Structure formats: C-alpha cells, structure tokens
Amino acid sequence: MRITAAVTAELVAHAREEAPNECCGLLLERAGEIVAGVRARNAHASPSRYLVHPEDHFGAIRRARREGLTLAGAYHSHPRSPAQPSATDVAEAHDPELLYVIVALNDGSGWRVPDLRAWRLAKGSARAVLLSITP
Ligand SMILES: [Zn+2]
Predict the structure, then answer these.
(1) What is the CB-side half-sphere exposure of residue 134 using CA atoms within 13 A?
(2) For residue 31, how far is its CA from the centre of ligand 1 (angstroms)?
(3) How far out from the chain centre does Cα 65 lie?
(4) How many angstroms separate the alpha carbon of residue 40 from the centre of ligand 1?
(5) Which residue blocks in the chain are alpha helix, DSSP H?
(6) What is the pLDDT of residue 11?
(7) How far apart are CA 22 and CA 64, in angstroms?
(8) Cα 33 to chain center, whole Å?
(9) In 10 A of CB 109, how many CB atoms?
(10) Rounded distance, CA 105 to CA 81, Å?
(11) For the chain, what are the domain ranges?
C-alpha cells in the first residue's frame, strides 16, 4: 500500500497533538494509495487504547463517497510504545479487509521515530503490510 508524504506528516502531527492520549482517524484511498487521513475523536480519550467515535466514522464514509475515495482503514497512535498492535488492538479489530496504521512517537528505546507501520489484523493475529511513502 502506498501513502502520500502529506498524509504521513498529518498523521504524525495528529499523534503529537493528542499525546499523551492516543489519537485515531480513518484513511481514505484511491487506486492503492492513501490520499487522506480523516481525524476522529478517540471515544476512549485514553493513553493506551482508542475507539473511533462512531459519528466521525460515518463522517469519513460520507466524505469518501463524496470524493470518490474508498475507506482503506484506520490509524491510531502509540504515544509510548512501538508501532506494533497491542493485544487489545488485535482483539478489537473486526475487519480483515481494513488496514490498521499505527504511529509510534516513543523515542526512549532507540528505534526510529516517528515510526509508521501498517497491519492487517484478523483472527487474533497481525500481519505487517509494506507502506511506501509517495511524494
Ligand atoms: Zn494500539
């Protein structure tokens, strides 16, 4: 899956603004490229979990229809942990077709930050998906 540099920057900016809580939102795609990140409220307002507010979820679907885009998936941030799905992320993922992008901000343990990783989550397991950033 491709993602534009502008969307990547927007996701990182959103993650930083919401820290120490997790941010979340939806990702809109055209022809295999994520071209928009739509911010959503985190209904849990928590530093360790997220729930895309249902109104914002529907809003993103409406925007996708309006603009001829497809809902590709969701993103959220991990303010203090790596860009790997938590056990809760895996347990709560309900759609194997959706892409789950995680933005990690933690700079305490030597890995590259900010770090963006994409996953498909299904049946209790996580599979990494290559994200290539396009101009
Ligand atoms: Zn998570």
Answers:
(1) 10
(2) 26
(3) 20
(4) 15
(5) 5-18, 54-67, 87-92
(6) 97
(7) 24
(8) 14
(9) 9
(10) 7
(11) 2-134
Residue that has been written with the tokens 């603004």 in this structure: 17
Q: For 2-134, give the CATH class.
A: alpha beta
Please tell me the distance from the alpha carbon of residue 52 to that of residue 24, in angstroms, as a whole number.
6
Assigned token pair, 134: 């396009």
Spacing, Cα 94 to ligand 1 middle (Å)? 14
The string of pLDDT tens digits covering residues 89-125 is: 999 998 888 999 999 997 556 556 689 999 999 888 9
Biggest alpha carbon–alpha carbon distance for the chain: 42
Q: Which residues contact residue 58 at a Cβ distance below 8 angstroms, ignoring those fewer than 6 apart?
A: none
Is the pLDDT reported for residue 51 higher than 70? yes
pTM of the entire predicted model: 0.94
